[in-house]
Each structure stands twice: as C-alpha cells, then as structure tokens.
Amino acid sequence: MIRNYLKTTLRNLWKHKSFTLINIFGLAAGLTACLLIGLYIQHELSFDQFHQNGSRIARAVMHYSIEGTSNKTVMTGTKVGPAIRRDFPEVEGFVRVSDPALSQRTVVVKKGDLLFNESRFIWADSAFFDVFSFKLLKGSSKTVLNAPNQVVLTTSTAKKYFGTEDPVGKIIRLEDKVDYLVTGIAEDSPSNSQLQFDFVASFISLSAAKNETWWNANYITYFLLRPSTSIPAFEAKIPAYMRKQSAETEMTGNNFVTYLMEPLTRVHLYSDAEGGMSAAGDITYVYIFLVIAILILIIAATNYMNLTTARATERAKEVGMRKVLGALRKQLFWQFLSESLVLTLGALLLSLLAAAAFIPLFNQLSERQLSLQVLFQPVGILALVSVWLLVSFVAGSYPALALTYFQPIKVLKGAFKNTASGLLLRKSLIVLQFIISVFLIVSTLVVNNQMNYIQNKKLGYDKEHIVALPMDGRITKNLKTLKNEFRQNPNIKNLALAYETPTFIQWGDGVETVGTSNPVQKMITAFPGDEDLAKTLDIKIIAGSDLTEADIKLLNDEDDAKSDYRFLVNETLAKQLGWKPQEAVAKKIKLGGRVGEIKGVFRDFHFASMKQPIGSLGIFPVTWGNVLLVKMTGNNIPQTLSFMENKWKTLAPHRPFSYTFLDEEYNQMYSNENRISRVFTVFASLAILLACLGLFGLVAYTTAQRTKEIGIRKVLGASVLGITALLSKDFLKLVLVAIVIASPIAWYAMNEWLKDFVYRMEIQWWVFVLAGVVAVSIALLTVSAQSIKAALMNPVKSLKSE
Questions:
Q1: pLDDT at residue 416, as a whole number
Q2: How far is CA 792 from CA 260, 405, 699, 706, 720, in A?
Q3: DSSP letter, residue 56
Q4: CA distances (Å), 175 to each of 119, 497, 736, 746, in order?
Q5: Least confident of 587-596, 611-620, 780-789
Q6: Are 524 and 615 in contact (CB under 8 A)?
Q7: Which of 26, 516, 587, 589 is least surrounded, with the fewest CB atoms within 10 Å of its CB?
C-alpha cells in the first residue's frame, strides 16, 4: 500500500513539474529561514547551560540607593564573596573575576619577541575551574590558580604563543613588568558562555586581593550554592545582612546597598544590570526571531495549501474514478497527504543544503558562531522530524480533506466546479500571506528608522573621527611628549587622556555638597580625564570655564588628600544639587572623597544607551587613564593612523599600537538592535518573495482555467489592457485588504518595541504608505506578468478545441 502511495505520488509530482518546483522552492526557502533562526534561538537559550553546576551558580548584582537614586551593577567589591561565604552556610564557594576590558584596558603580553595587546585576559579565584565547567586539558583545577602569578592559557592562545611546544612550566611577561608561570591549558571558552577569555590568571596576584572592601566595585562575583539551596530564598536574606554591615558600608537611613542573586543560566537573556563580560542578549529578541520564523513558515505552508486546492478541478476526475473503483475516502486522504509528506521531505533536504550554504552569511548577520552540527544530534534530528511531520500535516491535511470530499457522480457528469468556500479559502490565504509581508515591511522600516535616529541624533559630544588608544602608566608619565609629537601632524586636532571612552561610562561615585546647611548627597556617574577632555570631545561649557593645565598642577599624585580639585558637572547634576548652571560655579562639593569646587557646568550629553535618560555626570581631573582620545580632522585618516603608529613605536615600544574608532564603539552598543534591523530586512524580503511566489502560481493556474474566456473576450474586441485589468483587480483587492489589516497590528507591535527607548522617533504615516506601495507594486508586477501573457495569447489556439 505504502509503495503504491509513493509511486502514485512521484508520478503526480513529475507530471506537474512547475507546480512541484514552486511548492518545493517555497517550502525550502521557508524551512531554510526557520532552520537558521532556530539555530540562533537554540544558541541564545543554551547560554551557560553546559556548566554542570549551572543551576547552583548565581551572579551577585550590587543594588544600591543614595538619596532615592538607585542603580544596579554587576561590579562588586572584593569583600562580597569572602564575607557572604563565611556568614551563609548556603554558600559552598565563590569566584571573583577581574576583567580589565570592562574598563577598556588591555593587557600587554610578551613571550620572547612576540608582543600582543590582549583584551580577553581575566583574573579569577582558585575555585574557577571547580565552580565552572571549563575543561582543563593540562593541570589540576585545585592548583592551577592557587598561587600568585599563575596563568592558564586556552588551546588557541597556547598555539599562538608557543606553537606545538608544551607551554606548561613556561613563562610569559605582563606589561613588561611581571612574569607569570603557565600552569595549565584549558579548552577555548564556548561561544555560548558569558565568560569569554584567552587567559585566566590567579586572582591572588592582584594587589586588591589583599584587602576586603564592599566598595571599589571592579569585580564580578559568582556564588556556588549548596544543592538544596533556593536562590530566591537565599537572596531574601541578603538585605538584612547588609544592614548589619552599615558601619562599613556607611549606608544609613534610606540609603542602602544589597546584593541580588541572578541565576547563571538566566543572566544572558534576562539580566537588567549594567556591565558584564559579554554583550548581553534579550529574551524579547528571541521571541521576535521566533515569531518571524513562524510567520515565514506560515507563508510557505499557505502557498502549498493555496496551489493544491486551486488544482481541485484538475484532480476531481481522478478522485471520482478512484471512488467509483472502490477507493475509500481514508485511502484517498493518505494518498494526497503522502504527496505533502514527500514534497515537504524534499523541501527539508533542500533547506539543509541551503542552510549549510548560507550559515556563514547568517553568522555575520547575527554576530554569532552557529553550526549545523546541533541538527544532527538526537534532539536536533527529533526536531527536524517533528518539523517535517508538522508542516506536512498542517499544509497537506486541508487539501487532502477537500479533495477527498468530492462526490464522484457530479464529477464524472462534468457538473463539478470549484466551490465558493474553496475560493474564499484561497483568497483568505493570500490575504494572510500579505498581512505577514506588510507587517514585516513596516517593522523593518520602523526598526531601520529608529537605528538611523540613534546614529544621527546629536549626542552632545562629537564622536566622529576620534580614535581611542589603550594607555598604561609608563605612557602617561611621558604623556606631554606624546601629545606634542602627535600634534606635529596637521590632521590631528586634539588629544585627551581619559579613564574610559564616553560611549558608555561605567564609573559610579558619590557626590555631596560641602558648606551648605542641608548637605545633598547623590549617586552619580564620574568621568575622569585631563584638561583637554572637554575640548577633544567638543563638550559645550555653558557656565564657568573649562579645566586647564593649572588645574592639573593642583593635584598631588603622592597624597591625594592634599589635592585641590576643580570639577565640571553637567546640567542634570547641577539641578539635582539645587543650583542653576551659573549658581553652581565656585560651589564646593566632595566627589568620591575628592574635595574641591565646581569650575564649570557643561551641557548634558548621552553617556549611556538611548534606552536610559541622561543622568548626572561629573568630570574630575586626573594624571592617569586607560585611553588616549585622539581627534582627527577626517582628512587622510590612513596616513594619520600610520603617522601615529610610527611615533608610538618610538615613544611606547613596550605596548603594541592598537586603536578603536569611537563611532564604531557607539554603534556596537546597539548590536542587538542592529542585528534585528538586518534580520527584519532579510526576512521581510523573503516573506514578500514567498507571498509573490504563491501569488504567481495561483495567477498562472487561474489564467489557465480562464483561457477560453479570455479568447472569447478577445474575439469580442477586449483589449490587452482590459483583460490584464480584469485578471489583476481581484488579486490587488486582496492585497489592499491585507494592508488595511496589517497596518494597525504593525503599529501596535512597533510602538511596544519603541517603548524600550527613552529617546525614540515617532512612527510616521508614510511608513504604512510606503509598505503598502511596496506590497501593491510587487503584487502588481507578479499578477501583471501572468495576466499580460494570457491576454497576448492567440484566441484561435485557445478556442479551436470548441
């Protein structure tokens, strides 16, 4: 029986090649998109799932509030781990991680003549390889990080520095100052890990490890809880515990500091805390990708349903004859469903080949390292089989039921014709396809417009043609010489030393008014830099004056208590402290223990994501920093960079020359949104292509059914334009209905998405008009191509059989 079903199926599919190709291509395109999106979703959901202790690991998030202003950050002090481990029996262990990249620093590693700037160099407590499941290939997890100046390399890093030589027991030199002993080799960190590293050094090597403090929050702390411990129940005990530490934290009254516990496996997609060692994902975007995949699959499946039911009259006699010869409806149902199974299987196999071809491109699009290997594991194979059966039954069940419902007497008498209900279904499916297409087009336009708005919005500082060069203490000692050498190039306008770049400033500090009857305390963001910082970034001073070299000379590097500080504050901070810009000038404040007076007030600028309102910001002068910001004119940029590199090699030979552009760093902050923008563009195009493919097949079939009618109309004097309009208008009406239905749905969905942004564009009316024009134009081209072809046919040929 099955063999007969298969033989009949293959014969029918071969007989109607164009129908078969359209269906296979449409389903394959839809399934390819779903496979790629499915791989992306699986990758996002698998983050940190590979750790054996994953369900017992929690990341500490510092939650603090000063004078009603609260904040959350993943950065903690050195005391959090040890103190909570000592005082809570629920805690089995802890790991503190120091990542210089979080403050935009790189580590210079030297081995012989090899010298590299390394951005994935971390320090971690000795329990690192016991708490986390990063596989050690050489060395013991108990000893590789239990002494100062020890380091574990990943396999790719070991090959980079030592080639085929065994690196264990060898020495690498950091910052041309300290030697580290290689004690182990670990597998490269997986792409679905929030902890990304090439080196792991012992935390005890850091001077900060010698002292325990709740503040100086520069470290990420993870806890390993005992098997029976509930993370929410454990977290609920922390606030009361931290209140008992108020003598140390100096947080009294309504001010507080506590720690939230984020389950490790939820950090990537659900965390709302600032910072982190890798770009965080967002569960919202996982849902968006999932919806896109489902919508595209619906379009592909409805193509099959539409074309199959449209061929009902063509297969009616076949059904009638089979029923007369004794075929049961059940047998016919499985016969037609087997066609769906075979077609979908062919499309699925083709989609696997297409996915393999397009996955490198999709990896660039999604900024992920995805692989098809997951599809050939037991779970992946089960998923593929499930998709095959689901699509086959969803797409094939209705056509199979409709075809087997035919009454043989009517069919064989020639009295059968397509029913009104069948016609209504096909029209409904076309409307559904174009609703999805228009929805995706509108979404694409809105997302792209918002990204353009973000990239072109005036930030309050100038990010164009600025490069950031990593710095260290040896370079800052000769900073004046370096600046003077760079200024010899006419294409360099200005230079400034800073702790970090202004795209996303993470330094948090407390500020307090001095000499007032009612002191005001606030938690603010601080931006350390030298006297050229405001000039280099073109930050506008609206009251008072900018910092000068004389202000830098007031600092005492040996004893900071003797320093006399001059501060710059933004409009928001001045207002929060109770002053207008002019009133704030010359007022005394204490910023993180630094006492001085406000010298100037600058206009607010964006120093965080557009999803956050502009907060309070203070600039204080320093003689140290992690980056040198170089403002160029924009002329001869390659030659200017080459000039800086040559000077750098002479003045700072101990550190490789490297740089990042400020505008690229700013755009990277919106990597999730940019990814969504690209994905919407690609898959909206695919959706409209699939919708038009189904429309093309349906129009081709409809015109074939009306060949004689067209011939008669031509004989009676109908023009080509008239016949084209006759055949096109019904389909275009359906597209217009789809536009009317899709527009409010798209407006609501995109308005909800835009709510994540404090600064956003309004959805304009022209977006819906443009989406409608695109949909109508493409549909018109699709319909007209077939309609004109039918209208140009010789009526003699179409009528000669009569």
A1: 46
A2: 73, 37, 15, 13, 7
A3: G
A4: 13, 19, 66, 54
A5: 780-789
A6: yes
A7: 516
